[in-house]
Design a protein that fits this description.
The chain is of the alpha/beta class and about 250 residues long. It contains eight helices and twelve strands.
């Protein structure tokens, strides 16, 4: 299955949408869901992080309520809810209130909500943002079966992507034209260009170099940067990430 919007095409599998706040990720996903036009909600399932109104409900009550909202026949609700709870490993938390859940468990509950539906398009709007890489990957792998048969689009801030799981990545930036490429293509942009090293001080800004991370250490400054050349004598070349690819793309003029 494929879905097209704004000249972009998203197919069956994991599709990422990366960009900073205000870049248009939510607008794009809502347009995919056709919520602005009031299209049939059974065709797609849009999920955001909004859960405040349900903090008093348990996870199971929340999912049962959402099952009704998705017009799932009553005789199938219990089975569908239990299946989604098991898929996201939420059994221990099924009778715990939403308000008591940790951030990662709330994200799991949101993904479980998406998996309730038979929709062929699952749109997750920053549902995994703010989680550690390990937590994002744990949820991402749990959704693997759904991504084999449906169009799954995961919007996230730069640095919060499903590293290694995405089939395609759509990059948004307020000042650049949107690009949508395979994840392998994005990685290839910065292959052999990502370096890590410890310097006595922060490197000076220079053309052709993009510093993507710094951390103060006792013996200097840890630096991760993208450059077409070896930036210092003692340096390690490292495997690029989608964050590296995005920052390289955003930095091109």
């Amino acid at each position: 299955m494929k879905i097209q919007v704004d000249g972009l095409q998203f197919g069956t599998g994991y599709n990422g949408v990366l960009g900073p706040r205000g870049a248009g990720k939510t607008r794009l996903l809502k347009k995919m869901a056709q919520t602005e036009e009031g299209a049939n909600s059974q065709l797609s399932c849009y999920v955001s992080r909004e859960m405040e109104a349900f903090h008093e409900l348990t996870v199971k009550e929340y999912l049962c309520y959402m099952a009704g909202d998705k017009a799932i026949p009553r005789e199938y609700v219990t089975r569908k809810v239990n299946d989604s709870i098991e898929m996201m490993y939420l059994n221990r938390y099924a009778n715990q209130s939403i308000g008591q859940l940790s951030k990662v468990m709330k994200s799991k509950a949101l993904v479980a909500k998406a998996l309730l539906s038979e929709s062929q398009v699952l749109l997750l709007d920053e549902v995994l943002s703010g989680l550690s890489e390990q937590e994002r990957m744990m949820i991402g792998y749990a959704m693997g079966e759904a991504a084999k048969e449906r169009v799954v689009v995961v919007a996230s801030n730069v640095g919060d992507s499903l590293e290694g799981l995405l089939d395609t990545v759509c990059m948004l930036h307020p000042e650049k034209e949107t690009v949508h490429v395979s994840a392998n293509t994005a990685y290839s942009w910065v292959e052999g260009k990502v370096w890590e090293y410890v310097a006595p001080q922060l490197p000076a800004a220079k053309s052709g170099r993009i510093v993507t991370a710094v951390k103060m250490l006792e013996d200097g400054v840890y630096v991760r940067e993208i450059a077409d050349f070896v930036p210092v004598e003692e340096v390690s070349q490292v495997t690029p990430t989608l964050t590296d690819a995005y920052l390289w793309w955003a930095g091109q003029r």
